[in-house]
Batch of 2 targets.
Target 1
Amino acid sequence: MTLADTARVSDNPVRRPKQLFRNLSAKFASIPMILTALVVFVGGTAWTVAHSFTKSRLLPKWDFVGLDQYERLWNSNRWIISVENLLIYGVCSLVLTMVLGFTLAALLDRKIRFEGAFRTIFLYPFALSFIVTGLAWQWILNPDFGIQGVVRNMGWESFTFDPLNDPDIVIFGILIAGLWQGTGFVMVIMLAGLRGIDEDIWKAARVDGIGITKTYVRVIIPMMRPVFVTALVIIASGIIKLYDLVVAQTNGGPGIASEVPAKYVINYMFEAQNLAQGFAASTMMLLSVIIVLVPWAYLEFGGKKRG
C-alpha cells in the first residue's frame, strides 16, 4: 500500500466514527477529571484575572477600574523588590542546581562504592518541607550559634557570615537553603537519564580515545536534552511559587529586602484585605508561568511535530 492509499484510508469518513467510539469506557471515566480541571483551574483562573480589573477589597465585587491595580502594582517598591529577588534567586538557582545536580549524578554514575548511601544522603533534604528547611537554615546561619558563632569560637574573631540580617545579600542566604533542598532531586533526575545511556557509547568513546569530560560535553549532554528540559521546567515552577522558604527564614525581612511575589500576593489578599491587588499580582505570576511553559511545550512538541 502506498502512502497515498494510507492517507485515503485514514481520511475515510466511514472509519472516523469507529475511531471516535473506540475506548468509550476510558473516555467516560476521564470526564469527571476534565470537568474538575475546567471548573476549578480554568474557571478559577478566569475569575481571578477578571477581578484583578476591579477594586475588590475584603470581598470580591464587580466594580471595574481598568488597569488601575496593575499601575499601582508596578509603582509599588515592594513589588519591584519582590520581582528583583525572584529573578536573582531564579537565575542562580537554575544554574547552580543544574550544575551541581548533574555533577553529583555524573560522580555517582561512575559506580562508586556506597552509591546507595550517598544517593540517600543527597536526596534526603528533598523529603523535608520548605518550612523545616527554612527553620533549619535559619539556625545554621544565625550569627550567635550558627556558622559565624562556631568559627569565632575557634579563634577567628573577625569572621563575619550573617546573610539573613544583611539586606544586600539576604536573598543569597535563602538561596543556600533552596540549593541544599533541591539539588538532590535534580541529581536523581540526571542520574536516571545517565543510566539510560547505552554502555556501548562509553565503550566507543574509550576506543576512540575521547576523554571523559569531552564525552560528557559533546555526546552525553546533547543526548540528555529532554532530561534537562524536564528538570528546568520543574525547577522553574518551584522558583515562581517560592514562599514558605522565605517565610520560615526571614518573613520577608530585614524590612522588605527578601520579599517575593508569592508572599506579596498572600499578604495583600489575607492581611491587607485588598483582593484586587493580590489578584493583579497573582495574574502577573500566572503570566510568568506561561512564559516558562510555552517555550517548553514548543521544544517538546513542536520539534517532534516538525520531525
Target 2
Amino acid sequence: MKFTAQQIAGILDGDIEGNPDIEVYKLSKIEEGSEGSVTFLANPKYNSFLYSTKASIAIVNKEFKPDSKINTTLIKVDDAYLAFSKLLEYYNLVKLNKFGIEEPSFISKTATYGEGVYIGAFTYLAENVKIGRNVKIFPNAYIGDNVIIGDNTIIFSGAKIYSETIIGSDCVINSGVIIGADGFGFAPSENGEYKKIPQIGNVIIEDYVDIGAATTIDRATMGSTIIRSGVKLDNHIQIAHNVEIGKNTVIASQTGVAGSAKVGENCMIGGQVGIVGHVTIGNNVKIQAQSGIARNVKDNETLQGSPAIALNDFNKSYVHFKNLPKIINDINDLEKKINGNS
C-alpha cells in the first residue's frame, strides 16, 4: 500500500519541504533507507545519514536546519520520534486491517461473532464461542468451547485458546500462545505413582493485555487464573494455575510464575525470574533478571539475586562475592600465623 508525503503529513500534522506527491510503501532506518521508504531523524548523532540516505521521505524535528542540500523530501513535526511511532502504529493498523471469513475454516453453528471480524483459513471456533466486534483471528488458530473474546482483540496464527477462557477487549495474543491448558496438578499415590488432579477452572484475560509468542497461561484448578488489565507479557513466559497478575505489570522473557502466586500492580519483572508458588508480591515491585523469589515481597521493593535480596544489599554483597578467594587466602594466612605463634 502506497502513501504520499501529503497523506503522511496529514496523519502527523507536519509541514512538507520537498515533493508532496512522492510516494512510499515501506519504513526504514535512516542509515538503511532506500527508494520508496520513509524514515525519521530524531537523534543528532545520525544527522550525517540524512545527506546520504536514499529514503524518499524523512520525518524530522521542526527546528532541524540542513547544512547542505538534501534530496529527500522532509516532513517537519514537533517530535520526530513520537511522530514516527504514530506512523508505525498506523502502518500496523493498515497491515492488519483484514475482514471476512476465509475458507476452509470451521465455525460451530452455536458460535457468534460481531461486525468487522476477520477469521483466517483453518481456524476452528468451537461450541458457544462468542467473538466481539473487529476481532482478528489469523489462520490456524484454535478457539475452544465457551470462549469469550472482546472487541478489537487480535489473535495471531497458531494460538490455542482452551475452553472457558475469557479474553477482554483490545488484547494481542501472539503466535504459539497457549491459554487455558491444564495446570501442573498431580498427587502422589501410595504406590509412588502420580495421580492427575482435574483442572476445572479457567483463565481470565482482562482488557489491553499483550501476550508474547509461545507464552503459556494455565487454567486454574478451581476458580480462575487472572491477568489484569494492561499487563504486558514477553515471549516464552510460564504462568501457572491460579496465578494472578496485577494491572499494568510487565514481565520479561523466560520468567516462570508458580501456582497460586499473586503479583501486584505496576510491577517490573526481568527475564529468567523464578517465582515460587503461594507467595504475594506487592505493588510497584522491581525484580532484576535471573532473580529467585521465595518469599512474600512488600510494596515498592527492588530485588536481585537468588534467593533475591534488596538491590542495594546485593550490590554491596557483590563487592565481597568477587573478592572471596582473596578473603579466604587472607584468613588462611592469619590462621597459620596465629597457630604458629601459639
